Amino acid sequence: MTEHCLFVLKPSFLDLLKKLNCAFDFEKGSKRPVFCCLKDEKIENLYWAIPTSDLAHRTEEQIKKYNEFISKDKSDLRSCYYHIGKTTKLALFKISSCFPITDEYVDHEYTSCQKVVVLRNKTLLSELERKLRRILAFESTCPNYFPQHITDIKNALTDSNQDLSNGITREAIELAEVRKGIARSIFNH
Asked: First vs last Cα of the chain: how many Å apart?
């Protein structure tokens, strides 16, 4: 996998997220590109991806909401939830929806006009990495704070006790089920 490149995920990654009871907003995984922001500094073959979206597909109200988050003081974590920047067109980077990924779940590089899309704008890359690092630092203190359950995905991708028949650990599934039960009991009362 190449850092700073856009990729399309395999349907098997969406299956993994479903098994882990993770929330995600890219049902059409075979079409939606994700941005491979950076390689993990500690775990070999693990990368951090950020879902992207064409800003032209957003309403004025949605764009206003994103800009409200983006314009918050830098000390406010919510200022890191989104970023608007240019890929081949103006795009929304959903940083708070980030997730770990391995080569196993990448279908192909995303192309536009028959060219692989690689981001080269150093200012954009620096800001995306800064925001991503803040989200990941927060996640490390509050595991699974975000709806996609970043920590559960990371554990499923890196656990050495993997069930190779489906690419997910039994422990990760059991932990996700326990968390799901706790969440139900909290919200049902």
From this structure: 45
pLDDT in tens, 103-153: 999 988 888 888 888 889 999 999 999 999 999 999 999 999 999 999 999
The pairing of strands 115-116 and 111-112 is: antiparallel
Closest CA to 53 of 78, 11, 81, 87: 87
SS3 assignment, position 40: coil
Q: What is the DSSP letter of 76?
A: S
- Quote the distance between the C-alpha of residue 176 and its chain's center: 18
Element (DSSP H or E) covering residue 124: helix 122-141
Backbone angles phi, psi at 112, to 5 degrees: -140, 130
Inter-residue long-range contacts of 29-33, CB under 8 Å, 24+ positions, other chains counted? 30/107, 32/8, 33/6, 33/7, 33/8, 33/87, 33/110, 33/117
Query: What pLDDT digit, counting tens, does each position of 56-111 carry?
Result: 999 999 999 999 999 999 999 999 999 999 988 899 999 999 999 999 999 888 88
DSSP, collapsed to helix, strand or coil, labels residue 46 as coil
> In terms of Cα–Cα distance, which of 125, 155, 175, 169 is closest to 43?
155
Strand partners, 39: 47
* Helix or strand (DSSP H, E) at 6: strand 5-9
